[in-house]
Amino acid sequence: MWADEFDGPKLDFNKWAVEENAHGGGNNELQAFVDRPENVRIENGHLIIEARREPFTLAGQTRQFTSGRLRTKHRADWTYCRVEVRAKLPRGRGIWPAIWMLASTTPLRWPDDGEIDIMEQVGFDPGIIHGTIHCKKYNHIIGTQKAATRQVPDCSDKFHVYSFEWTRDKMTWAIDGKEYYTLPRLEGGYEAWPFDNQMHLLLNLAVGGNWGGQKGVDESIWPQSLEVDYVRVY
């Protein structure tokens, strides 16, 4: 019902907004997210989100890295769907790419309104892919998040399809069509299951932060890119 194959010469702004901020994503990340070709572009039929080691000042805040974050909020929001993203991940200590969803509520109350992490990976733990949810009752701040992992040793060398299926009664995470985590609907009302909200998709590459920077940042690896071949929503 929605897709971007990234075959055009430029990003389709009817589908995506490119965020610009330097507030660290709420996780003490080190990058400024900026809207410019060096960080967000279409290249050979792929979306490139590139993190670079360079000082950049945005809204009075100076960061030592730049990168990109895209979202579909208010352009495309869904309740229950299947998302497939074919992507190749960056590598190196300090990278933190993510394919994820947030509630499209306004204002957003995090984590109360819900977050779904379709794919996260941190560079200090290479080849380990994480699928996770966060809500008021289950979130990483209080150590109760619902999550699972799968090993994909060549995730930075080859493209893989990261998929997520979301119905009223359960969620399922898969890689290359192989399911690795199923989460049945959790009892406990909105605090345990806000996932009947409309939600939107985000793609980003963070640097450092509370999780991605736990083992420091290798300053010799930059630039690094999250490459996305397609996004398809069913």
Keywords, please?
2% helix; 234 residues; ten-stranded mixed beta sheet
How would you portray this structure in words?
It is a single chain. It contains one helix and 17 strands. It has 234 residues and is mainly beta. A hairpin with a 2-residue loop joins strand 4 and strand 5. It is globular and about 45 Å long. The mean pLDDT is 97.
Overall morphology: globular
Terminal Cα span = 5 Å
Which structural class best describes the helix and strand composition?
mainly beta
User: Could you give the order of the helices and strands?
Assistant: EEEEEEEEEEEEEEEEHE
DSSP strand content: over 45%
Rg result: 17 Å
Q: Give the number of helices.
A: 1
Estimate percent helicity.
under 10%
Largest beta-sheet details: 10 strands, mixed
How many DSSP-defined strands?
Answer: 17
Segments where pLDDT lies below 50 for 5+ residues?
none
- Mean residue pLDDT: 97
